[in-house]
Amino acid sequence: MALLMPNLTASGFENSGIGTQAMGMAGAFRAIADDWTAAYYNPAGYAFIKDNQLGANMAFFQLRNEINPDYRFGNTFETGIFNNHTDYNKNEILSNPSGGFVVKLPMGGKEIVLGLSAYQPFDNNISWKLFGLPLAYNDTLSVPKDQFTNNLDVVSFQLTASREFIEDKLSLGLGVQVLRGDLLFTNINFRNNPYPPPLSVRPWNKITEWSHNDGNGWGFGLNGGMLYKINEKLKFAITAQLPFDITIDGTTKFEFYMPKIPTLIENTDDPNLQEGTAGYLFASGSKVVDSADFHTKLKLPPSIALGVAYNITEDFTVSLDAAYTFWSRFDGFYFNYTHHRGLTGAADSATIARNFFTQNLANPLNWDDAGKIMLGARYKYQNLFTFLAGVSDDQSPIHNTSEINPQFVDTGDKVTVSGGVIWHYQQWDFGVSTSYTYYPDFSAPDMVDLNNDGLYDTFKGSYKASRYETVLSFNYRF
Amino acid sequence: MKSSLKIIILILTFTLTLSYGCSDRGTNNEGKLNLKAGSLMKVEGAHVFFNELKLQIKNQFQQLQIITYVPQVDLPDYLGGNQKPIPLLVLLPPRYGDANFYFDHGLKELADELISKGIIQPMAIACISNDKVFGGYFYAGHSPAAGNYDTLIGGTLMEYLRTILPFTIDSASKTGIGGVGMGAYGAFRAVLLHKGVFSSISAVNGPLDFDGADGNSGFVSLFSDALNEQGLLGGSGSQSSWVNSFDSSTTWPLTQLFIGGSLAFSPHDTAVTDTTSYNYLTHTLTITITSRDSITDTATLIRNIIKQDEHNLDFHLPFDSLGQPYPLIWNMWLSNNLENILADSSSALDGVNMWIATSPEANFANYHSQTLSWINTLTNPPYNFPVETLTYNGTPGNPANNNQYIYDLMRDMLIFHSDNFGN
User: Fold this and answer.
1) Domain layout of chain B by residue ranges
2) Are B189 and B214 contacting, i.e. CB atoms less than 8 angstroms apart?
3) In CATH, which of 3.40.50.1820, 3.40.50.300, 1.10.730.10, 3.20.20.70 is domain B39-215+275-286+337-421?
4) What average pLDDT is seen over chain A?
5) pLDDT digits over A24-70, tens only?
6) Inter-chain contact B25–A75, Cβ cutoff 8 Å?
């Protein structure tokens, strides 16, 4: 019976799968699809499942990423980013549960197989502290630790139906998804000082803005597939996943760290630099705090896949899948802010200041579509154990070599090796698997403003990444 | 192999992988940039007065504002301490720049960063003020209105700085001077007139060649622009009408520049005979002004727009109503051109390391081309001085306009002086 081993890393922020043999076989599961996780891989597989099933698994994984920043304005001027120092993402063992059940129901003379499952098709969870205020600002102020964070969870609650259209030969399946998206996204932006000189000459030409966006939203998606048994040994599958946009709404906290230019505001008779004026605020070294509501679109990528599986013997199966994800549809996050509250004094009343503090932010990405090839093997040993092994090669959507930042660390095409074992005990299956994903080292050569809003959207530096994952699971057949 | 052994091997492999996956990765940089912040020592008020500025316009207290950056290092106790003393750098601001000028452009933060990182050695940096009335007098001259900067910069100022900064090394090899704009001219002038005081000079975009490379550009090509500022070009009517209409208000930047220069280089009458001794701190300063120069020609004389007590503060412009050089006066300016000062004291630059930078985007009053011309003079026969030069156009995304280049170039300027000071 199936053992659930989700979460080998896919390109972008996609969980390359949930469960099982699937992931023990590096995701090459679409033409096998014989446990409840077929809800994700190929809903058509439900039609050929012989038992009712109830299963769940818990994946434990760690992203072990490193950045050695080289983040300087004009490649020269210090920004406060900890350059030339290797920093690590928040050291945290992440967990990712999923589960589901499958029941066979006779309907209108035909047997329909239904399933209800919950899993995360998309997941990203990373946080960094890479910044301290430089001396040109008030370096006695503390900047929150979660400076570059992207905790994005998309959970799918999927109702799946499948039936055979040619008995023991061809089945079709369709899953209807209710998608829940949760986003916690923080960032440090270096905004252009809106004042003319002398208030905005270097090194005070940038104002550090920390934003903390926390929200959620609902959406829908479809997941369909076909499974065709060419003969007793060979099976072929086609699948497609179509998630629709999710509108994320939430609240945002802002902190602005103003330039500190004491020589400009002390003992001056300039009326525009007296205490209480916006000019004074922009040279005072103070912290301006604001909050607002936000909404943004989460444009999830559709994907298509093909799979073949071949039974070399009754107990030994190999499979090969190829998937293609349309990452070009995902364009990052564009945060639109409304209902600002928290600005006081000159920050609120002076037009130049309020316009500055209430500006929308964006974290654009310009990814390319990406493919993935998966090769897996499954060996059943005396109805007592099932041994799994697999390897996959996953293309990175970041083909423009500059487009990387701490929130989306995808250093290039990656290779995952995985293995696992399932212990079959009566109607129970208990499994464990582990996997390692190799990422190439990567040096981002440039800081790039992708959407011409005056803010750098990529993060120059040297990147390293790897991922370890362990999955524990059970499945009950009845 | 028994099944149980396979299981054990699998579990061991899993455990090792898990252990490695959870191993310590090192320590993050949790702190700030850990830079050592120096302090600013302001020296102003009644303690800072210089007799050279005795009659300077609107400076009745003869004050020169001085703000000094003092790095955060274990400074030597000059009463008996044994810490290593530090070099001294003097920076002259451009037109209208006060003693805060360089600090308003990030000097303190830059010095803190570079010293903390060990890129430059700790040094004291003294910044003085330029004139607030006409923007400056080119740190030159011996006229009553403009002041007596020729004995001040490189002279009494240095004596005073040694007194208030006893932890600096009183040696030319550990003393540098630099400036931006008019300060660049002042720095070179001070070095040329005070041989053996400074060993390094840095200059950025200044009026370093009044008549330009061809003898007919530089300021010459700006004369008509200065008259155009006020609508006086062409001078309708009598010769006296345009000079009577000449406006000294701050509305006109080129006008201000030429008034400041004229008060320094071509005052109508240096009618001050004065010998004064001042006792301050541990020194007695004696300033003697005995020479009197008076210009009898009146063609470009600007009268009575500046008054101070009974002294005559009139001045002569170097150009006529058509914007052409007026030779009698223009020659007085040219005698103050660095090229001519150098010809009189060429050995003053021997052993002085020079760094000159210019930014085409910051080209007020043809300073960029004047600077290039001055570099050309220095580096070609008969002088052939080695000069470090830099033409600065900003960095990607960081243009060198709006005075942004000053912060950018100060980095190189400080590094240059630090290297020159040696160990």
Assistant:
1) 39-215+275-286+337-421
2) no
3) 3.40.50.1820
4) 91
5) 899 999 999 999 999 999 999 999 998 999 999 888 888 899 999 99
6) no
Average pLDDT over residues A399-421: 87
Does the pLDDT of residue A151 top 60, yes or no?
yes
How many CB pairs below 8 Å do chains A and B form together?
A: 126
> Selecting from 1.10.10.10, 3.30.70.790, 2.40.160.60, 2.102.10.10, what CATH number does the domain A20-45+63-477 have?
2.40.160.60
pLDDT tens per residue across span A294-344: 999 999 999 999 999 999 999 999 999 999 999 999 999 999 999 999 999
Residue A7 has pLDDT above 70, yes or no: no
pTM: 0.87
Cis peptide before A198 (omega within 30 of 0): yes
Residues of chain B with pLDDT under 50: 46, 79, 278-283
Beta bridge partners of B214: none
Q: CB-based contacts of B200: which residues, under 8 Å, 6+ apart?
A: B175, B176, B177, B352, B353, B354, B355, B416, B417, B420, B421
Per the document, the length of chain A is: 478
Strand, coil or helix: what is A307?
strand
Spatial CB neighbours of A329, under 8 Å, sequence gap ≥ 6: A299, A300, A301, A302
Contacts of B35 in chain A (CB under 8 A): 134-135, 139
Residues of B with CB under 8 A from a CB of A: 3, 7, 10, 13-14, 17-18, 20-22, 25-26, 28-33, 35, 37, 40, 67, 100, 103-106, 108-110, 112-113, 394-398, 402-404, 406-408, 411
The answer to whether the Cβ–Cβ distance between A385 and B402 falls below 8 Å is: no
pLDDT digits (tens, 9 = 90+) for B37-61: 677 777 655 456 677 777 677 776 6
State how far the Cα of B240 lies from the Cα of B302, in Å rounded to an integer.
Answer: 9
Helix (H) / strand (E) containing A59: strand A53-63
Running DSSP on this structure, what letter comes out for residue A14? B
State how far the Cα of B374 lies from the Cα of A230, in Å rounded to an integer: 87
- Comparing alpha-carbon positions, the chain A residue that sits nearest to B14 is A434
The per-residue pLDDT for B306 is 65
- Domain residue ranges of chain A, discontinuous segments joined by +: 20-45+63-477
Any residues with CB less than 8 A from the CB of A54 and at least 6 apart, and which?
A36, A99, A100, A101, A475, A476, A478
The whole-number pLDDT of residue B235 equals 63
The 3-state secondary structure of chain B, one letter per residue: CCHHHHHHHHHHHHHHHHHHHCCCCCCCCCCCCCCCCCEEEEECHHHCECHHHCCCCCCCCCECCEEEEECCCCCCCCCCCCCCCECEEEEECCCCCCCCHHHHCCHHHHHHHHHHCCCCCCCEEEEECCCCCCCCCCCCCCECCCECHHHHHHHHHHHHHHHHCCCECCCHHHEEEEEECHHHHHHHHHHHHCCCCCCEEEEECCCCCCCCCCCCCCCHHHHHHHHHHCCCCCCCCCHHHHHHHCCCCCCCHHHHHHHHHHHHHCECECCCCEEEEEEECCEEEEEEECCCCECCCCCCEECCCCEECCEECCEECCECCCCCECHHHHHHHHCCCHHHHHHHCHHHHCCCEEEEEECCCCCHHHHHHHHHHHHHHHHCCCCCCCEEEEECCCECCECCCCCHHHHHHHHHHHHHHHHHHCC
Going A189 to A194 to A199 to A203, the CA torsion angle's sign is positive
List CB contacts of B412: < 8 A, sequence separation 6 or more: B355, B357, B390
Residue A467 contacts residue A64 (beta carbons within 8 Å)? yes
Residue A464 forms beta bridges with which residues? A66
φ, ψ at B29 (rounded to 5°): -80, 95
